[in-house]
């Protein structure tokens, strides 16, 4: 197996918790590559059908995994997705689940134009900590960390923590 010089990081959590904002800034600060799974699927049309209820295309998970597998084995990738059990466990060195208080999240998703069932289901997903539980099932518990993401101060603190972790990982592996 090839040894990686840079770690792979998964940023996951309910839509609206701040994965994209954090991931892009993290890429700037660490030099790692940011990959948004939604965008990747859109660009490659990696879809398999259409979800009428949520009015969105359904991700073709196998094709997404195939598309990224080689890049992941090289390391240095920050993956952003609102789910986590579709990826091979071996891909990630650490998993961060961003968490947002539900009133805060409601406001953010409403601003994004979510309404009705889509808005309610996403807020409920956060209340039931669905993605956190999915992450704890899919990955070794020691590598799964929750990060509060309510304020700009939280964002800055999270960035600092992950940058520090990344630097340490690279010292330990090079
Ligand atoms: P996601 O990629 O998880 O869907 P996002 O990065 O697009 O989320 O963020 C959604 C909105 O919330 C966006 O307007 C930025 C804002 N936001 C994200 N994290 C925040 C934080 N920690 N404090 C305040 N606002 C935040």
Automatic annotation (TrEMBL):
Gene3D superfamilies: P-loop containing nucleotide triphosphate hydrolases. Monomer and homodimer. Interacts with small ribosomal subunit protein uS11. Not a structural component of 43S pre-ribosomes, but transiently interacts with them by binding to uS11. Interacts with COIL (via C-terminus). It is an enzyme of class 2 (transferase). GO terms for cellular component: Cajal body; cytoplasm. This is Adenylate kinase isoenzyme 6. The keyword Transit peptide does not apply. Keywords: ATP-binding, Cytoplasm, Kinase, Nucleotide-binding, Nucleus, Ribosome biogenesis, rRNA processing, Transferase. Residues 36-59 are annotated as: NMPbind. Belongs to the adenylate kinase family. AK6 subfamily.
């Amino acid at each position: 197996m090839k040894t990686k010089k840079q770690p792979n990081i998964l940023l996951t959590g309910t839509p609206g918790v701040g994965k994209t904002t954090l991931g892009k800034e993290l890429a700037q600060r660490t030099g790692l590559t940011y990959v948004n799974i939604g965008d990747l699927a859109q660009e490659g049309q990696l879809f398999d059908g259409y979800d009428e209820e949520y009015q969105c295309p359904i991700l073709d998970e196998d094709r997404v995994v195939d598309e990224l597998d080689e890049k992941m084995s090289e390391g240095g990738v920050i993956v952003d997705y609102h789910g986590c059990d579709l990826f091979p466990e071996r891909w990630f060195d650490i998993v961060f689940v961003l968490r947002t208080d539900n009133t805060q999240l409601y406001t953010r998703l409403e601003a994004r134009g979510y309404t009705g069932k889509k808005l309610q289901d996403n807020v409920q997903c956060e209340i039931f900590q669905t993605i956190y539980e999915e992450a704890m099932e899919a990955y070794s518990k020691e590598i799964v960390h929750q990060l509060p993401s309510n304020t700009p101060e939280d964002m800055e603190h999270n960035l600092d923590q992950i940058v520090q972790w990344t630097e340490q990982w690279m010292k330990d592996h090079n």
